[in-house]
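Exercise 7. Given the encoded structure of a 134-residue chain, write a plausible sequence.
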């Protein structure tokens, strides 16, 4: 799944038009969801990450200033999404089958990458940047 995101980032950085970008985005999402009758919950963070990258690159192509944020990993995005749902670190760990300390690690990295001071502002900024949905 991470390779799919990296391929999109590489391909989208070299395209020069909005239509090229849209075609690359749609092909990448199609590849990510291929052979699935229904979108699997484990694929949702990938589609969100792809969409956030698409929106960012589209803004660049349209000449709008964009805020640069270091890309979040899939686990960081998943932890942030569960944070948005009001889950504690322990609950997120149980849901994702990782330890509470690992959740703390991912959320700490997310907070640093988004240049915010706590998990609530990380969630708000994640929504604003399109990294997670409302």
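Solution.
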């Amino acid at each position: 799944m991470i390779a799919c995101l990296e391929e999109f980032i590489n391909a989208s950085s070299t395209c020069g038009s909005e239509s090229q970008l849209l075609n690359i985005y749609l092909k990448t999402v199609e590849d990510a969801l291929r052979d699935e009758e229904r979108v699997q919950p484990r694929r949702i963070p990938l589609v969100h990450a792809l969409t956030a990258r698409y929106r960012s690159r589209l803004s660049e192509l349209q000449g709008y200033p964009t805020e640069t944020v270091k890309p979040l990993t899939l686990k960081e995005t998943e932890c942030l999404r569960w944070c948005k749902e009001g889950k504690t670190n322990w609950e997120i760990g149980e849901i994702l089958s990782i330890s509470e300390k690992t959740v703390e690690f991912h959320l700490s990295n997310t907070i640093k990458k988004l240049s915010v001071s706590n998990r609530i502002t990380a969630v708000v900024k994640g929504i604003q940047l399109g990294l997670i949905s409302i």
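Remark. The two ends are 23 Å apart (CA to CA). Students should compare their own answers with the one above.
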